[in-house]
Amino acid sequence: MKNKKLWIFIIMLIVLIIVVSYFVLKQTHVIDQKQHSSYQTYTVKKSNALKLKGKSSPQTIKTYQENREIGEYIRPQIQNNQTVRKGTPLVYYDTNRSIRPKLVEDVKKMQNYIERDYDLINKHPNNQTYQQRLSKDQDKLSQAQQNLTLHDNKSSKDIYATFDGKVNYINKDIDKNGNILQLISNQPQIKTTISEYDIDKVKEGDKVDISVNKGDKKLQGKVIQIADLSTESQKSVDHASKDKSTPIQDVSKPSKYAVTVGNLNTPIKDGFTVDMNIHVNTIQLPTTVLTKDNNVFVVDKHNRVHKRAIITGHTDDKVLVKQGLKVGEKIIKHPKSNLQEGQKIKPSE
């Protein structure tokens, strides 16, 4: 009888040891490693360059028109097709009939009024009327100075070259629209559009390789501007500014955004068609690496996995990563729901 009880105790002890061992192995993932020992991984890499087409154009085109506030227009000061530097005088005015002397006189008059106000306040420091008059005259002086500054800035832009460029045409006499001459920037640029699915991949400063279709010319540039409004929205703004009815947008097509490429290392003629590769510094992932809560499992150098939150952008069939991963890191493909933080796995590409 004693032997029988002893054997029952031993058997129960063995069962208890097995149960405890199972849970210990379960918690340390040993059992899981045997059942799910191998996981496919994906090595994080940069997105491929975006391939786009575009058209070259001058960075700036400015038409100089008659400005009667400067004075009476006399003549141009340069020749047609002349190359000029920023600050070169282009248009000659008779400034004797300018409104500037009156604007200067307004400033001086208000300065004299303020000096008078201070004298009165010094003689009558407790007089509130003089204090109020001083405050009003200071406001009027500020407005007079602002008017003079605006006039000088406008006059400068209508007389001098505001950028390096070449004079395209000259009217010896002002045309019916008031045009005198046109200045074309020496700096070329390339205009293109990009889909809403790729807009988050591009940022200002991205390098661009450019191939000119005519002559097989190669050059480089950088992205210098990305439109905030889609081309459809911009058209709506333009129509509204002209008091026209807003066009109906086609919601069946993806939106496009204007992108400007500049800082070209080689000149290019206006109107040339080009092929471009924009080297984006973004990361794209296959959707198969995401967990149900849109996180990923990163594999460290010891083959242990760590759950990590990432910030994603807008794209079509892949995950665009804005923050949370680095190029070269390995992440789990098809992560299972029972994959746990710190679990050791056997990775396979």
UniProtKB/TrEMBL annotation:
The Multidrug resistance protein MdtA-like C-terminal permuted SH3 domain, residue ranges: 293-332
Keyword Repeat applies: no
Transmembrane keyword on record: yes
InterPro entries: Beta-barrel_YknX, MdtA-like_C
Transmembrane portions of the chain: 6-25
Sequence ranges assigned to domain YknX-like beta-barrel in this UniProt record: 189-278
Keywords of this entry: Membrane, Transmembrane, Transmembrane helix
UniProt xrefs under Pfam families: Beta-barrel_YknX (PF25990), RND-MFP_C (PF25967)
PANTHER family, per the entry: HLYD FAMILY OF SECRETION PROTEINS, MULTIDRUG RESISTANCE PROTEIN MDTA
Protein name listed in UniProt: RND transporter
Organism expressing this protein natively: Staphylococcus succinus
